[in-house]
Amino acid sequence: MDSVDRVWISRRYEHCSGCRRCEIACSLQHEGKIWPEASRIRVFMLIPGIEIPHLCFQCEDYPCVEACPAGALTVNSQTGAVEVDSSKCTGCGLCVNTCPGRVPHLHPERNTIVICNLCGGDPACVKECVKGRWNALELVPAGSVASRKPLAKTPEELTRETALKILGKEVLKEALG
Amino acid sequence: MMRGYAGRLLDVDLSSGSISETRVPEEDLKNYVGGRGLAAKIAWDRLGAEWETVDPFSPENILLVLTGPLTGYYPGSKTCVSGKSPQSNGLVGSTVAGEFGVDLKCAGYDGIVVTGRAEKPCYLFICDNHVEIKDASQVWGAAARETLRFLVRKTREDVSRIRPRYGEAKEPSILYIGPAGENRSRIAAVMSKYSHAAGYGGYGGVMGSKNLKAIVAKGFGPLPDVYDDEKMLRLARRFAEDCLENTWFRRWGTGGGGYSFGAETSSEPVRNWQTEWHNKRSYRREEFDKYWVKKNWGDFGCAMTCLKLAVIRKGRFRGAVCDNPDYELEAYVGTNLGIFNPEHNIYVSYVVNELGLCGIQGGAVLGFAAELHQRKILSKKDLNGVELKWGDPRGFAALAEKTAFRQGIGDVLAEGVYRAAVKLGEKKKRNLLKYAVQEKGMAIGAHGVRSGRDYISSRIAYACSVQAGDHTSPASPMRKGDRGELSSILPDSGVYCMFAAFGPTDSEILEFYEAVTGWRMTLREWYGEKALRILQLQRAMLLLGGPDFKWRPGVDDDNPPRFWEPLPSGPFKGRRLSRRRFEKERLEYFKAVGWDEKGVPKPRTLRRLGLTDVEAKLRRAGLVT
Q1: What domains, with CATH codes, occur in chain A?
Q2: Which domains does chain B have, with CATH numbers?
Q3: How far is the alpha carbon of A160 from chain B, nearest alpha carbon, in Å?
Q4: Maximum distance among all alpha carbons in chain A?
Q5: What is the model's pTM?
Q6: Do A45 and B171 touch (CB under 8 A)?
């Protein structure tokens, strides 16, 4: 069960401006550099105007943790975030394939997976998004979301859902096929 | 070690298919910075000796795609596209928003130099060190949506082959051309996303002449290390906060101007500039809100996110998607065509974007054709049966398509408003240049100078700009500390967005530049030397011109004829520019930047700036005697 003070990052895709300041904040926090592909949150833009901030959903049953053959993934008991032990990760990619949102990705320079760890409960990406009043990302109590796993979808699935709302069926078809 | 720069350029020869890397000497980076400045230097070194004879659409021309040292770090990024311009025959630093410059730097390159011409339609694929010229025949002829759909899918597949276990990689950043560019229109833009464009200069046509449909870039690395992280981030945060506090501009963007530049400042082109005033309440910004997807829209790192996403969901124009439109397109494919209906404006914007026509140059030539039709100079037959009526979006959309594909009358219109006026004038045996609102081969930005109330208010703004009609690089007499056109060279060379830079002063930008590069540059060095040097190079290339047209110094540094007529309507009715004051200001400006009374750089100026080769060239060309 979620502890009372656990947080979750809610995302409203139709509010995302595509500014990618979340990527900058995240990569500065975790890598000390501006590094879009190393960011744990990445904004996918498979259709211009439809920007999808993509990061770990913290599924209740943590399929990635279950799937890891190296024991490199654990759930932080305080935050509920997935923690990666880089010394154990072999970069096999099984977690990516098990994730319903295909969220984890390899660090672009090291052969290990990176996954959002909620910055210990105070995520840098959310602060940036809220500060800019875009509010595509917001911090909510983890318990306020009925179920998180159904929200976990791939960038393409989320693009389709969001584009259908914003652009309509015909444009979606022309833009994405 | 170099900071803020990747330290190398990609050199691609499409004729031979060879791909190599070039290191730019540190001294050149220090002097020319990046973007527009570095483009001027590279183009001059490679083409300067033969400048007048280089056809912009020949394989000899170079296409430059350059970042700057501030790209990616400044909260608002751009990419600069340049080369010999098929519009001005000079060199224009033309910028486009988007992630391209950031992706390119993350891939390890500060820029790309493309020469030659591919045998078949191709696109350039860059994924870090994997650089390949790939086949684009499948999307040759395709408009924006189809092109992007293909390139995003294809590139993601290719990237996953390069990094098989990576997981989902983000899409690449893409610069591309539409049919207009493919057909070597002089008014084709280099496009990004659906409505982002490097329009001025006409480099879409240059890409087309090289059979280059697109450049896709995917960078997996970090941005290059900077000299002083802490200081860079502190300043970047402050610049971002300036943007965040700008609630009006964040709310409305430049698209907030479609009504006010007409109704309030009388400086908006209306029906091919026959007037600059309108008070059509149907065109108020609140009316555009009906189509606005309620979110701010922006590009990498931008704290302003001044763009709006407009979508038409029902009715005859269903499926049209573009930005707000921004002010320039509200004007040029709106009021300039007699369109005062936001939905119609969004539709025509969408059409020109899909075709890859520059909204400004395209809107200008469509308005020009409509005025000739209004004056019965062009008949419906001349227009290949297109029904052209002020305010009717369908007629203009049809003509835009003919222009992009160079069909019928479109073949002439694809040359842009100046050359169309010359060519149609010869055919009709009339002087049509009086209806062409342009400067040295380029339609001018949608900011008239007759009322004196626009933020671009100088009488010499366009007449003396080295980027001709470019409203983002206006000249002014440089009185009382005003830096004139030199101030535009800073964002264009640092390659960050001027719309995210209302806050910081030039000194703060130079402080930021130092934090990024570790190189100290004083205001005096920039304005008294480096920016001035870039200006001289651009002026020299503009005056050398050719091969189809050359501009007469002093004589062609003039406003378009229509700007000398009094404003015919509105609160500033009757206001006209004073020829005497124009000439006085022009002379003042020429003096301030070290040019003679005709506007030719003086040998003394060139020598002081170390540009003796420019002096020699201008002498050989008979410009300096």
Answers
A1: 7-176 (3.30.70.20)
A2: 244-443 (1.10.569.10)
A3: 13
A4: 48
A5: 0.98
A6: yes
